Amino acid sequence: MENIYHSVRLDDEKCQGCTNCIKRCPTQAIRVRGKKAYIISDRCIDCGECIRVCPHHAKYATTDHFNEILKYKYRIALPAPSLYGQFNNLDNVDYVLTGLRKMGFDDVVEVSKGAEFISDATRKMLELGVLKKPVISSACPAVLRLICTRFPNLIGNILPLLTPMDFTARLAREQAKQKTGLSDEDIGIFFISPCPAKQTAIKNPLCYDDQPINGAFAMKDIYPVLLQTMDKLQPADVEPLNDSGIIGVGWASSGGEAAGLLKERYLAADGIENIINVLEELEDEKLNDLDFIELNCCTGGCVGGVLTVENPYVAKARIQRLRKFMPVSCNSLPKEFNLDAAGWTKELQPSPAMKLADNVLKAMRLMTELKEIEQSLPGLDCGICGAPSCRALADDIVRGYAEKSDCVFSALRSKGDDSWIPAPFRADVRTHTHSTDDYAHDFERAFLQQQDDQTKPEE
Amino acid sequence: MESIKLHYDVSADDFTRAGAASGDVKRTLKQLGVSPATTRNVAVAMYEGEINMVIHAGGGEIDVEITEDAIHMVLADHGPGIENVELAMKEGYSTAPDNIRCLGFGAGMGLPNIKKYSDEFRLETALGVGTTLYLTVYMK
């Protein structure tokens, strides 16, 4: 098994071994064994859905500690546009940007600035007609990983451009070097991230080797300190740092990137289940009449990231209000700009995670076995075995990661014991409607009994 | 020769479930490590056939056999049969009723697409009896 860096991790001490997460993982990457959950590394796409659903807060996203900035002489913050949606009554982005400066950053470069350049580069590439249509956005790193693991056939449709975060970082680094004369090691660039997938993309970039970003901070960690700093700002302190408009800031929510292309034939989907459905249709060539497909793993887009503070819809509404006071766009690429400078330097590689074996014949034998095992399982997908479905358990068994006796039904049957079946799967069991009747009846009987007792003469 | 056999019943007029069979075959092929191009060809050809069954034939049955060299599909229905096969094979020709076209289907690309995406294509049809498609996609 490949050992890949993942931001999403499990805190063994907090994990109670419940099965909430296994059912909600969109790539079926989690199992519960030995009273604890674990994540199958090559299937995890760092979407963070398990962080949302874990009632014990055992799943978490690793991001960098704020002290990391102390390692550098010149520190730059790259706020994701979704950050602007986290504050109530904000009507000027400069408060947020100045607040970041006061927190200890020498410079703040908005990711929405880089986004405007990427929007421009995408428009140019679409015009040149060099892209395979429909073009799939490359901005969401969880989508990229999902495509590599489950839809490798679609790798060729992905927009081969850097993400706004990556492009902004390169821009910020160049500017800082020119301005300060410092060398690369002295300049620290930190992304303020709405999600764990971005942290993973920083530590383990898929489309380039040289990483200009030094770390990422979770939006939810930065938020309380930033809010306090912003509260203390006097109007005179606020610096005019905002340098992006409607198009750049629009990338924060679903549909923003696509709208920035100024084309009509696009689709924007968000939420992991929805994007999987779109990718299935795309793979079956049912969406060939579209030019562009924007996909965001989180509901609502990046404002729905698991490291944000605010509800995605509230954040989106706030950003809409903020955008009203902004110009359409503040950045465009110079005419002579070489698009390669915003492009990937490494091919995206498929990493199919569901394959049973490297050789088709061997895989076919395992598949036959898998189908037989699946047939013998009860098909209830109860999750008691620690796998999300009977099919997933059968899959685990043929791969040698589980045994048939892990299924409680199979185990009882093999012991010749069918006396106990869990309540959800039993016929003679109290249901909600019956039980209320029973309770009412019990109550009535108890009441009559009590009256009887009271009317009885004392002995 | 070793093979994997899969069987699906396609129910009539249920568009919410149309594509379930081809979706399952696609998932199976991916797990087998079959090449993306082969998987795509099977998925597209079979999906179109499945949709045809729902639109025109009141459902039907699909049998799939996967061997080391090829994927064989037999899609059989007991629908009205095809009156003019030559016309039905023409791109853009459709007999789909308006209520189906409203759903975005019935563009007249079904049979031409099935032929395009399969390496071997044979169609047997009889009016009032039904239609059977025999498709083969070779492993690439």
Describe the model.
The complex is a heterodimer of chains A (459) and B (140). Chain A has helices at 20-24, 49-53, 93-102, 111-128, 141-150, 164-180, 196-203, 219-232, 246-250, 256-259, 272-283, 312-323, 360-376, 390-399, 408-414, 432-455; strands at residues 8-10, 30-33, 36-39, 59-61, 74-79, 107-108, 135-136, 187-193, 215-218, 266-270, 292-296. With 459 residues, chain A is of the alpha/beta class. Chain A has three domains: 8-61, 2-Layer Sandwich (Alpha-Beta Plaits), CATH 3.30.70; 66-342, no CATH class; 360-423, 3-methyladenine DNA Glycosylase II, Chain A, domain 3, CATH 1.10.15. In chain A, strand 10 (266-270), helix 11 (272-283) and strand 11 form a beta-alpha-beta unit. Chain A is globular and about 90 Å long. Chain B has a single domain, classed as Histidine kinase-like ATPase, C-terminal domain (Heat Shock Protein 90, 2-Layer Sandwich). Chain B has helices at 20-32, 36-56, 85-88, 98-101, 110-117, and strands spanning 3-10, 60-67, 70-76, 120-126, 130-138. Chain B has a five-stranded antiparallel β-sheet with strand order 1-2-3-5-4, covered by helices on one side. Chain B is globular. The model of chain B has no long low-confidence stretch (mean pLDDT 88).
